[in-house]
Amino acid sequence: MKVGEDYALERTPLEARRPMWEVFLIRFGTVATLSQLILGASLGFGMTTRDAVLATIIGCVLLEIVSFLIGVAGCREGLSTSVLTRWTGFGRFGSSLIGFIIAISCIGWFGIQNSVFAEGIVQALGGSVNLQVMMVITGLAVTLLVVYGYKTISWTANIAVPGFLIAMAFATYKMLTDYNLGDLINMAPPGAIMPFGVAVTMVAGGFMVGAIITPDMSRFNRNIKDVFWMTFLSLFLGELIVNTLGVLMAHAVGSPDVVSIMLTLGGWLSASLVIFATIKINDMNLYGASLGTSNFLDTAFGMKMSRATITLVIGVLGTLGSVLGILDRFVGFLTLLGVALPPVGGIIIVDYFILKRSREALDVSRAQNKLPDSVENINPIAIVSWICAFLVGYFIQWGIPAFNSLFTAAVLYWVGNVIFALAAKK
Fold first, then answer.
1. Do the domain assignments include residue 9?
2. Residues 224-260 pLDDT 10s
3. How many domains does the chain have?
4. pTM for the full predicted model
C-alpha cells in the first residue's frame, strides 16, 4: 500500500488496524474544536445551563446510536462509508451518487472551515496578517497533511487535541477563579431564549454527517468493542464537556463570540490553541471528501486515481473557494446536502443488520480480504426511500429533521423490501 492511499477502494486489512485510543483521539479531535465550542457558547447565550446540558445529552445519545451501528458495519467490513454503500442497499451507481454527495459536502465545509480557521488566527494576532494570505497558508497546510493519510492525521491529533485541552483547562481555571460556579449554573441566559427543540436539533444535526461517515475511521478499529468506546467517549467527552464549558463561558462573558471568550478568559495563547484545534475537523472534512471522490470516480468512470492526488486537487480547489469567498454563498446548498446524508445511515443500518441482503457475499469475501465479486448496479427501493426521506427531512421541521429523515428512510426501505419479497413469491 502506497503512503497515503489508506485502502480507499479496498478492505482495510487486520494488520493495518490501530489501537482504540489512537482512532479515538482522531475522532475526538473532530468534536473538541472551535466549532463545537461555538455551538456550546450559542446554547449558553440562549439557555440555562441545565437545559443546555440536557439538550446536549439527548443529542449525544441519538448520535451515539447512529455512529455505533454504522461504525460496526465499517469495522467488520473494513470499508469507508461510500464504498460500504455498494453492498448495503445502494448498489454500484447508487454508491457513486453517495460518494459524490459526501465529496461535495465535505469539500464545501473544508473551504468554509478554512475561512473560520484563518479568520480566527488573524483575529487572535490582532489583524496583523492579511486574511487571504492566511487562508492560503492554512488551506494548503491541511491539504498537505491529508495527502499522507491516516498517519499524519493521527500525528496532528496528538498535537492539536492536547493543545485544545490545555487551552480549555486554563480558561476554565480562570473562569472558576473569577466567577462563582453556582451563579453561572443558575443564572438566566444573557441572550434571546433558545427553544429546547432547536437546541437538540443543533446538537444532533450538527454532527450527523460526522456520524454517517463513522466507517471512514472505524475501519481502522480492531473490534466492535473498540468502535463502541471510540464513538462513545468522543461524543460524550467531546460534545458534552466542550458544550458545557462553552455554556458556562458564554454566561460568564455574556457573549457567544468564542474568540472574545477565550481572549477574555485565557489570553491570546489559549485563543490561538483553540483556533489551531480547528485543523482536526478540517483534515477530516478533506479526508472524507477524498474517500468519497475516490469511490465516485471508480464506480462512475472506472478511474482508480491515487487518493493522495485527489486530496491535492480538491484541497487546492477548496482553498481557492475560501480565498475568493465563493463558498460563503453556498452554505444553504451545503446545508441541503447535509439533509441528504442522514437517510443513507437509515438504509445502511436496515440493510446490513436486518435484511442482510449482501451479508453472505461480504462474509465470504472478508475471509479472503477482498471485495465481493459482484454488486448490483442500482437498487430502486433504496433510491426511492432515500428521496422520500430527504423530502421529509427538508420540508418537515418538527422535531429533529436529520433524525426524521433517517427514521423515514429506514422504515420505507424495510417496508419496500418486505413488499417486494412478498410480491416475488406470488
1. no
2. 999 999 999 999 888 889 999 999 999 998 888 877 7
3. 1
4. 0.91
